[in-house]
Design a protein that fits this description.
The structure is a single chain. This protein folds into two domains: 183 residues, MoaB/Mog-like domain (Molybdenum Cofactor Biosythetic Enzyme, Chain A), CATH 3.40.980.10; 86 residues, Ribosomal Protein S8, Chain: A, domain 1 (2-Layer Sandwich), CATH 3.30.1370. The chain is 45% helix and 22% strand. The chain contains eleven helices and eleven strands.
Length: 279
């Protein structure tokens, strides 16, 4: 089964200046393809920290896709290409497609009357320097590109594919949906069935039910989420999920039939308070 991990790069995220919206978006898209999301690293803009996270995820083995977000611009703290290349023990090479796009940006800057010097060209040209053997994943009409670097044959061959994406949310989302998903996620895993059961009891009232559920249906993933109403989410193979959901619903009905259970549900859901306030 294909798994996925993510490395979010940016001092501004760790400093609280920017909220990461890329990892929730990736989680949503992975769920649509049935790809388990194993881990998210959030790291500073340093070669050491980015490289450490890349090496850790590659070492976990495949088949796996490791998505990075951020750190591929032209400023000195944009180090993701360099860090990924170093972590994978590869040199940087200039990609001709990216260089052509960079040259277009340089020409446009000159046309605006901006004085383009060697320092300007050197820094912006860094955006065309990618890890050796990386390949571009492009979307129609887009300027930015995703860069995929295969390790041990890549995720298609049981290895790891590191996908380097921009951190700008609009570009990250567009490239993920229209370039990365079709190439790396589509039709790889069976999409699990999901059942949600709501109830008005405190979460602790179902602990015994959950213990039995885990013994009888060990492959079903269980999530219990506090709120009004409470939510139980079950996911996995459809037949297993249906059996587990039926068991939870039967246990809830059993609780509701008992005097203590009825009172507990009424108080927890606020029905008693509503009646007292309206009296």
């Amino acid at each position: 089964m294909l798994h996925a991990s993510m490395i979010v790069v940016g001092d501004e995220i760790l400093g609280g200046y920017v909220t990461d919206t890329n990892s929730p978006f990736l989680a949503d898209r992975l769920r649509e393809h049935g790809v388990p999301f194993a881990r998210i690293h959030v790291v500073p803009d340093t070669m050491e920290d980015i490289g450490e996270a890349v090496r850790a995820e590659v070492a976990r083995g495949g088949p796996r896709v490791v998505v990075t977000s951020g750190g591929i611009g032209s400023t000195p703290d944009d180090l993701t290409y360099e860090a990924v290349a170093a972590a994978l023990d590869r040199p940087l090479v200039e990609d001709p497609v990216l260089r052509e796009r960079i040259d277009g940006a340089i020409d446009w800057s000159r046309e605006q009357g901006y004085e383009v010097d060697d320092t300007f060209v050197h820094n912006i040209a860094r955006m065309a320097q990618i890890p050796a053997d990386g390949r571009l994943l492009l979307r129609e009409g887009g300027w930015a590109a995703a860069v995929a670097v295969d390790v041990d044959g890549g995720s298609d061959q049981g290895g790891v594919t590191v996908v380097i994406l921009p951190g700008v949310p609009s570009e990250f989302r567009a490239l993920l949906e229209h370039a990365v998903e079709p190439a790396l996620f589509a039709a790889r895993n069976e999409v699990p069935a999901v059942r949600e059961v709501t109830h008005g009891f405190p979460e602790s009232a179902l602990n015994a039910t959950f213990l039995v559920l885990q013994r009888r249906w060990p492959t079903v993933k269980l999530g219990s989420y506090p709120g009004r109403p409470m939510l139980v989410r079950l996911s996995g193979v459809e037949s297993e999920v249906e059996g587990a959901a039926a068991y939870v619903e039967a246990e809830l009905e059993r609780l509701r039939r008992s005097p203590g259970g009825r009172r507990l549900e009424s108080r927890w859901s606020g029905e008693d308070d509503d009646r007292e306030n309206s009296a």
